[in-house]
């Protein structure tokens, strides 16, 4: 079979009709499948079920130092949890705060803090001028949703195979109204790429015109390898690099156990410079008395330390890797000859980034939906949902079982090819 | 013995010397006692220990309708929890959202939401003019801390025995920069008073100049009676009253289980009008994916329904009531003749409000601290910590055991009397 772009109209029409017949047959099955979000599967959640029962009685609720985790207090989190994240992120204990059940909330709160008057200054909104933010994309739709909610103007930055385009960033940050940037530096959502040492070093050295510029370093997938960790991607620690340039205040790192333990009931952590930690804690001290320390205690009793965490992540890997393989294989088989698609082969994270023929992503997602497969909305990984090429589809293989996933991937392949032939036939 | 104000200088000096000797003897014991915050005691926390273990296995984590509480989703909380708070607050199901582990955070978030652009308008900060807030006082120091953090100007409103002074409120809300008010309408912190029906009806009918005016109706102590509930205070439901005046959007009610189950790991609820719920949910949908539903499930399995909750609160009452009695008795015995103090006899809540001789509250708290008894800072129940009469002391009897509490109260009595004689001798 030839590549679609090399086919003449008759060949395309024949291919189109063949695909349509297959598509209609699949559609007739009346499936209801969901590959839209990076949700862990029940099987993965079951890995942490010991955490449901690991506090047995009154005697178990005291943390190191005898703190009653049921009562008020300990604003910045149990010391044992802070030590755990200190080890994991390789950031000093003093620079760690434990957050609530979602790093998304930590980020929303931090953006809010920076927009408004805070301990470090009058806030990004103070001048009354538009606030702008750099958004490497494709990126995480929920990052963009925070900015859109606050009316922050989003400037797309091209995402390369090893991180965002530094030249574009360097140019953009000359504008003092550009106040920050969102990054998912390891196993990025959705491309799965990890920032190279070179990119991390370049980012650590940036000199933004805005003195209150902040990079939200969303290290969501730091231990989420799909291969043996030794063979997985390595991300350079941003803080020592930033320190070399006096830039330690520019980076605020977050992570969570949402995809380690329970997605809705994990714990999160913030790592930041002394100055940033002080400002965050100052706000927190007005915001609440403590996060849920019982959940913190359940976590640390379960995860124990970084080696135990890594053993736990190996169990996630054993569930996740075959799912990614199933999708990759379906893409390989379905797309190999037609030449209309390319996709990523991440060594970790939760997504495969699929690029279909320009101008057909929306139609592909629509065709999938009509055949009973829900995908992330086309364009979602771009600011304002605007994928300029209309080619990007975020594939989330984590939730469905492998057998379902194969069906999803088959329908996605056929839909993408059908949309491509439709598009090419229009010409 | 005569009243202090009727004593001559010699009599006062003799009384002062007698008190000082007693004070020094108590101080010499080197005590370390804490009566500073409304913290539940361990004995109270133990009442909810079944909640630590009431999810036994994988089979237990599904809520009504089969939702896996471990995973993402259900932004506004488990339906069974919303039903519970709907019954408790007598507000329709649709008007209830479940929040995180602290109603304080819900209030901080809501103030933040109102200050900034939001679904309902440009926000309180938009005009650039100072934002002002009404603060019935003595009131809750953490409410005032939120406002102070945001630079909101706090206007004190006199707290009467049955709620805030309505005339002062009516006058103040003519200023369109007055954007809201904090209320603890039942067993108020710290006076313990409950707003009378008359006050609730008057508040429900207010006509503020600011169309985005909001009353934070912090119903923190709604089931926290110190007497049999039938003999306890009754608070009129604000929403039906407000509705009569088209004012349903003016009130946002919050409550939590912080003083029902675990103070650091409870769940909270918001009750509000359709319009306000929509705006809150809109912001929440950008802020996080869900609150901790496992904790919600633990709560509803434990608290079950309002009758079960009331049985549980009777156990709290059995622990709390003797503590309040011990303090009341110590005050009765110690202050009866000297005429320098008056205090509240609340039927519920967490505090006794003590008024000592004008100009001696700070000195009393200082003397207590030096004798090893930590009290809430004098002035804390007033905006900017400024008690104009320097007479108010918030007494929090919940945490120490009764025997300790008796010692605390004794030291407080002697300190207040000593400070009073010092003050009167100065004249």
Molecular structure report:
2 copies of one chain form a homodimer. In chain A, the strands form 3 sheets. An 8-stranded mixed β-sheet of chain A has the order 2-9-8-7-6-3-4-5, sandwiched between helices. Chain A starts with 8 loop residues before the first helix and ends with a helix. In chain A, helix 12 crosses helix 14. In chain A, helix 8 links the parallel strand 6 and strand 7. Chain A is built from 14 helices and 13 strands. Chain A is of the alpha/beta class and 427 residues long. Helix content of chain A is 41%, strand content 13%. Chain A has 2 domains: 158 residues, Aspartate Aminotransferase, domain 1 (Alpha-Beta Complex), CATH 3.90.1150.10; 242 residues, Type I PLP-dependent aspartate aminotransferase-like (Major domain) (Aspartate Aminotransferase, domain 2). The first copy, chain A, is globular, with a radius of gyration of 23 Å. The mean pLDDT of chain A is 96.
What is the strand and helix layout of this fold?
Two copies of one chain form a homodimer.
Chain A: H1 9-27, E1 33-35, H2 42-46, H3 50-53, H4 79-89, E2 96-99, H5 103-115, E3 132-137, H6 141-149, E4 153-160, E5 163-164, H7 166-172, E6 178-183, H8 197-204, E7 214-218, H9 238-244, E8 251-256, E9 268-271, H10 274-287, H11 293-303, H12 306-335, E10 342-343, E11 352-355, H13 361-370, E12 373-375, E13 392-395, H14 402-426
Parallel strand pairs in A: 1-12, 3-4, 3-6, 6-7, 7-8
Antiparallel strand pairs in A: 2-9, 4-5, 8-9, 10-11, 11-13
